[in-house]
Amino acid sequence: MRIIIIGGGFAGLSAAERLLKSGIRLEVILIDRKDTADFLPMLPDTIGRAICPEFLTLGLKDAGTKLGFIFIRGEVTAIDLDRQSVTTKEGVLIYDFLIITSGTETNFYGNDNIRDNAFVLDGAEDVVKIIGLLKERRDASFIVGGGGYTGIEVAANLRRYFDREALQNRVLIVERAPNILGVLPEWMRGYVIDNLNRLKVEISVNSAIERIEGERVYLSGGRVFENAAVIWAAGVKTSGFIQDLKAEKNPQGRIKVDEYLRLRDNCYVAGDTAYFSHQGVFLRMAVQFALAEGECAAENVIATLKGIGLKGYFPRDLGYIIPMANNRSCGEVLGVKLKGRLPTVLHFLMCLYRIRGAGNKIGILRNLITGR
């Protein structure tokens, strides 16, 4: 019985681990276009807190050896649900069950100029490039495209980096909408804006990055920044093969699934690729949901093989935190509003708990304690 998992992130590894603990003889194949699973929630922290990016990676081949799945590095180009096939650039694989956990990627909204000239945070390799840029262009202004969670974290960590290096570089957040963090409660948005002002991070709303020409950045309204660089964090979308798949999706391309996380009887979708409604509200993208959905999808595959009833997915929302590099974080955990150092500590405790690999845990903890 062959089960293919597309994507080696939180949901994909969670699904693989559950399948291989089922006691059923299964061939589990995990496909990912990268060799590593990168711990995305801490990528911005590597900039401001000197966390080694290497500690945020997990080798998928090694994980496959440990857990028992077959890892194939390849880029999926198409899925045929009728023929039960997955096409990669290297060939075609046939499956009995498919679990799609391919996550999302940076959305450039069709702007090839920004795609080719801006820096992103899709993985540990991207952070290494940004840190190299910071060291190389010590007098540059840094413009962060996007005022969502990631953009806010990146801007705050840039300021922490510059403060540590005794530099006064300009940091600017550019947001197309009327507000940053527009979906969050007013108290939280106000707290974050006040903190960004404390950090001397500039905010420009109702604004857009139009193009990048070398070290010159053009914004809407005729503003031009010389000796500047752009870090793009203005949104995400699903991969091209998901966009091409005939299924109901949201504007980001996330696939709408049923109560069991199914797209079809033998095809499940989990993690950020899934668009799941609970009590009339679609879940936001979050690690806690990705882990639980991956496990639930795997359990339903196992249930089908055993001929027993499927398990509906019932999310448990522990809350969310916006970690800020100066430790003035905020969030809501188990219904309680939190501000200051405590949510910062909770952010790192949860990251240490969730990251795989004892070496990674120890390395991150050492970096956090020593600052190097």
Task: Please explain how this structure is put together.
- This protein is an alpha/beta fold.
- It has helices at residues 10-19, 43-48, 60-67, 112-117, 124-136, 149-164, 186-198, 240-243, 287-306, 341-354, 358-370; strands at 2-6, 27-32, 36-38, 57-59, 70-73, 76-80, 85-88, 91-94, 97-100, 105-106, 141-145, 171-174, 202-204, 209-213, 216-219, 224-225, 228-232, 236-237, 255-256, 262-264, 267-269, 274-275, 277-278, 281-282, 319-322, 329-333, 336-340.
- A hairpin with a 6-residue loop joins strand 25 and strand 26 (329-333).
- The radius of gyration is 21 Å and the shape is globular.
- The termini are far apart.
- The mean pLDDT is 96.
Would you kindly provide a brief summary of this structure?
The chain is an alpha/beta fold and 372 residues long. The chain has helices at 10-19, 43-48, 60-67, 112-117, 124-136, 149-164, 186-198, 240-243, 287-306, 341-354, 358-370; strands at 2-6, 27-32, 36-38, 57-59, 70-73, 76-80, 85-88, 91-94, 97-100, 105-106, 141-145, 171-174, 202-204, 209-213, 216-219, 224-225, 228-232, 236-237, 255-256, 262-264, 267-269, 274-275, 277-278, 281-282, 319-322, 329-333, 336-340.
The count of DSSP E runs of length 2 or more, i.e. the number of strands, is 27
Shape descriptor reads globular
What's the story with the biggest beta sheet? 6 strands, mixed
Radius of gyration: 21 Å
Average pLDDT for all residues: 96
Which stretches are poorly predicted, pLDDT < 50 over at least 5 residues? none
Share of residues in strands: 25-35%
**Span from first to last CA?**
47 Å
Q: How do the strands line up in the largest sheet?
A: 5-2-1-9-21-20
**Helix and strand composition category:** alpha/beta
Q: Count of helices? A: 11
Helix content: 25-40%
